[in-house]
Write a structure and sequence with these properties.
Distance between the termini: 64 Å
CATH architecture: Up-down Bundle
Structural class: mainly alpha
Order of helices and strands: HHHHHH
Shape: globular
Number of domains: 1
Number of helices: 6
Helix content: over 70%
CATH topology: Ferritin
Oligomer: single chain
CATH class: Mainly Alpha
Length: 180
C-alpha cells in the first residue's frame, strides 16, 4: 500500500498560511481604507448595516459554513496532491483550487475592510465559477467522487453566495467605489 505523501497536518499548515495571508491583506486594506477616510467597523457591524435581500443568511451562518467548506476544500486538495501526477484532470483541478484559495484569502480585505459590496461580488462571482468548474472537473474528467463530495458544500454555498453578492452590490451603498 502506497503511503500518502501529503498528510492532514500539511493541509492544516496550508490553511493556516492562507488565513495568515488573508489577515495580512486585510491589515493592508484596512490601512488603505482609513487613509481614504472610511471609518473602521467590524465585519459583523458592516454586514448588518447592508441592504440585504430576503434570502441573505444571518451573519452567524458564515463562519459555520466556511468552517465546513474549508475543511472540504483542504481534504479535496490533499486527496488531489496524493493522486498520481498523471491522473486525468488532477493538474487542472489543482490550478482551479489554487486560484480559488487566492480569492478566498482576498475576500475579507476586499469586502469588509474596504467596505465594498461591489468588491464582494467581484471576488464571489469568479470564486463561484472556479468552484463549479472544480466540481465539474472532479466528476466529469476525473470521475473522483470523493473529491466531488468534498467540494459539494462549497458549491452549494456559492449557489447562494453568488446571487447574494450581486443583489447586495446592486442595492447597498458602496463606500469604496461610490463615495458620496
Amino acid at each position: 500500500m502506497r503511503r500518502s505523501q501529503w498528510r492532514w497536518w500539511h493541509g492544516l499548515a496550508f490553511y493556516g498560511g492562507v488565513r495568515l495571508a488573508g489577515w495580512a491583506l486585510s491589515r493592508c486594506a484596512a490601512h488603505y481604507a482609513r487613509s481614504r477616510g472610511l471609518p473602521a467597523v467590524s465585519p459583523q457591524q458592516f454586514y448588518r448595516r447592508q441592504k440585504l435581500p430576503w434570502f441573505a443568511p444571518p451573519s452567524w451562518a458564515f463562519p459555520v459554513a466556511w468552517s465546513v467548506n474549508s475543511a472540504g476544500l483542504v481534504a479535496a486538495s490533499l486527496r488531489l496532491l496524493n493522486l498520481p501526477v498523471r491522473t486525468s484532470g488532477r493538474n487542472q483541478l489543482l490550478r482551479l483550487q489554487a486560484a480559488g484559495w487566492v480569492l478566498f484569502a482576498s475576500f475579507d480585505a476586499a469586502y469588509f475592510q474596504l467596505q465594498s459590496p461591489i468588491n464582494a461580488a467581484l471576488v464571489t462571482l469568479p470564486y463561484s465559477l472556479l468552484t463549479w468548474a472544480s466540481l465539474f472537473t472532479a466528476v466529469r474528467r476525473m470521475h473522483d467522487h470523493a473529491v466531488a463530495w468534498a467540494l459539494a458544500p462549497t458549491a452549494a454555498w456559492t449557489a447562494l453566495a453568488a446571487p447574494l453578492s450581486v443583489a447586495q452590490a446592486c442595492r447597498a451603498r458602496d463606500r469604496f467605489w461610490l463615495r458620496n
